């Protein structure tokens, strides 16, 4: 067993660089804005936020029909501030570049990734799916 410790920033940077992905069997992103705020509160107050489970992927454990998803780079919240947008696209990966899949921690890491590197939108009450109000800027 390898005990490689990574900081949250290092993990988020690896997500941004495409080195970390999610297996296609992961569920949709469902967290709401309040859950994301509470996660940040926990981090800033130095409370534990649980662990993450990573799967090292390579030629020995991935076949041609194994699909993965990149992390979301934008999300739309409905007027109740619940995630309400198209989720992950399936893709094949280049295992020479991408070497890790997230098995546990998808909601937390997606929330952190969107907060720091993504964009979020809030759809006004009774608006159709297309019109949105920009919530934050990408950095």
What can you tell me about this protein's structure?
The protein has helices spanning 8-16, 33-44, 106-117, and strands at residues 20-23, 53-56, 68-69, 74-77, 90-91, 100-104, 119-122, 133-134. The protein has 139 residues and is α/β, with parallel strands linked by helices. The protein has a five-stranded mixed sheet with strand order 2-6-1-3-5. A three-stranded mixed sheet has the order 4-7-8. The termini are far apart. The relative contact order is 0.24. The mean pLDDT is 83.
What composes the largest sheet?
5 strands, mixed
State the helix count: 3
The averaged pLDDT comes out at 83
Question: Helix fraction?
Answer: 10-25%
Structural class: alpha/beta
First-residue to last-residue Cα separation: 36 Å
Beta-strand content estimate? 15-25%
- CA-based shape: globular
Residue windows where pLDDT falls under 50 for at least 5 positions = none
Could you give the count of β-strands? 8
Write the layout of secondary structure elements.
Layout: H1 8-16, E1 20-23, H2 33-44, E2 53-56, E3 68-69, E4 74-77, E5 90-91, E6 100-104, H3 106-117, E7 119-122, E8 133-134
Parallel strand pairs: 1-6, 4-7
Antiparallel strand pairs: 1-3, 2-6, 3-5, 7-8
Helix pairs in contact: 1-3
């Amino acid at each position: 067993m390898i005990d490689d410790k990574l900081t949250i920033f290092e993990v988020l940077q690896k997500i941004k660089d495409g080195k970390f992905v999610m297996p296609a069997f992961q569920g949709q992103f469902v967290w709401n804005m309040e859950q994301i705020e509470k996660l940040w509160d926990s981090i800033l107050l130095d409370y534990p936020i649980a662990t993450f489970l990573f799967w090292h992927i390579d030629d020995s454990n991935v076949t041609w029909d194994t699909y993965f998803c990149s992390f979301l780079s934008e999300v739309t919240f409905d007027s109740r501030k619940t995630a309400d947008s198209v989720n992950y696209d399936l893709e094949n990966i280049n295992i020479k570049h991408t070497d890790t899949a997230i098995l546990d921690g998808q909601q937390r890491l997606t929330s952190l990734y969107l907060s720091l590197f993504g964009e979020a939108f809030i759809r006004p009450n009774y608006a159709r799916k297309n019109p949105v109000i920009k919530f934050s800027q990408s950095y």
